[in-house]
């Protein structure tokens, strides 16, 4: 009955965001270099890290992600709800 039960009783008000699983679009890829002298030269980057989810990508994969970024963003963003939905795969 004391204040302890007040502290530890009751429901936890923590919001569990587990249910919401948003796929990371890896929109911001940060280049990483193994050798210091290559730093700044994006062609020589050994891997790329997504700034959002910290996932690492091979340069080829990063390139592919960048190439497909706009269409992937368009696919996940319900901003433009046009009725033109013909031929969507
Ligand atoms: Zn990501």
Protein structure class: alpha+beta
| Topology order in helix (H) and strand (E) letters | HEEEHH
Global morphology: flat
Rg (CA only): 22 Å
**Helix content range of the residues, please?**
25-40%
Instruction: Let me know the largest β-sheet.
Output: 3 strands, antiparallel
What is the count of β-strands?
A: 3
What fraction strand? 5-15%
Give a list of the ligands.
zinc ion
Please give a quick description of this structure:
The chain is an alpha+beta fold and 89 residues long.
Structure, described:
With 89 residues, the chain is of the alpha+beta class. It has a domain at 24-76. Helices cover 26% and strands 11% of the residues. The radius of gyration is 22 Å and the shape is flat. The termini are far apart. The mean pLDDT is 80.
Identify the notable features of this structure and list them briefly.
alpha+beta; single chain; 3 helices; about 10% strand; about 90 residues; flat; binds zinc ion
Topology, please?
Layout: H1 3-8, E1 29-32, E2 47-50, E3 56-57, H2 59-67, H3 69-76
Antiparallel strand pairs: 1-2, 2-3
């Amino acid at each position: 009955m004391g204040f302890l039960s007040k502290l530890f009783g009751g429901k936890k008000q923590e919001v569990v965001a587990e249910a919401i699983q948003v796929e990371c679009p890896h929109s911001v890829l940060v280049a990483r270099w193994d050798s210091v002298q290559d730093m700044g030269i994006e062609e020589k980057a050994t891997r790329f890290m997504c700034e959002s989810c910290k996932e690492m990508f091979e340069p080829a994969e990063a390139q592919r992600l960048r190439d497909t970024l706009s269409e992937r963003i368009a696919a996940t963003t319900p901003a433009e709800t046009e009725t033109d939905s013909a031929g969507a795969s």
